[in-house]
């Protein structure tokens, strides 16, 4: 990229924020959720929403742009990657045959993230479907300490790993979005 976009934000209260507190759907009044499971699910929901917010308002070309060279990452690639990872997590807790990869060979989630609206629409549909399926599979386990799947991973560990994965990629999304159109904010 030869020309960097000018940095900007929609926030007027705090210029380092993505949106003003009254307009940010992640900001909630009152106390946080009660209990470990509810807290973990709340953090996961917040990071999922943050990823979507970082992609809002961009067209297929902008979503597919690899804006931080030499990385192959794009915002669309992150959406596809997280759909693939949700499926992988279900494989971790299953005792059966693993589900096939959504996008094929390794890194196809990023390499196949091309600037076509049909690819964008499919990526969001894949992500929603895979998130719902993994959420449903984990809901079957009331005990966060229960060990599941061939690897005997604790349900708690899987939930924390999901939060970590989304949080890490939301950091990538911050940089990718800023390089696409200059919008800043956490």
TrEMBL record:
SUPFAM superfamilies listed in its UniProt record: DinB/YfiT-like putative metalloenzymes
Could you tell me what this protein is called? Answer: Mini-circle protein
Give the organism the record lists.
Answer: Streptomyces kanasensis
InterPro entries per record: DinB/YfiT-like, MST-like
Region Disordered: start-end pairs: 1-36
> Which Gene3D superfamilies does this chain map to?
dinb family like domain
Judging by the UniProt lineage, the source's domain of life is Bacteria
Q: Where is the signal peptide?
A: none
The residues forming a coiled coil are none
């Amino acid at each position: 990229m030869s020309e960097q976009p000018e940095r900007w934000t929609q926030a007027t209260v705090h210029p380092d924020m993505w949106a003003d507190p009254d307009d940010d759907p992640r900001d909630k009044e009152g106390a946080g959720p009660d209990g470990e499971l509810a807290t973990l699910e709340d953090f996961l929901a917040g990071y999922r929403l943050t990823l979507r917010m970082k992609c809002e308002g961009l067209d297929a070309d902008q979503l597919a742009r690899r804006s931080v060279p030499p990385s192959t990452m794009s915002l669309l690639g992150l959406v596809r990657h997280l759909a693939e990872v949700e499926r992988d997590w279900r494989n971790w807790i299953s005792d059966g045959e693993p589900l096939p990869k959504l996008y094929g060979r390794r890194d196809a989630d990023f390499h196949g993230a091309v600037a076509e609206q049909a690819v964008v629409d499919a990526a969001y549909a894949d992500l929603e479907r895979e998130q719902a399926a993994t959420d449903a599979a984990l809901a079957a386990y009331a005990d966060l300490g229960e060990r599941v799947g061939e690897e005997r991973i604790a349900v708690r560990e899987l939930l924390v790993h999901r939060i970590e994965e989304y949080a890490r990629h939301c950091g990538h999304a911050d940089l990718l979005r800023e390089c696409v159109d200059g919008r800043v904010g956490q």
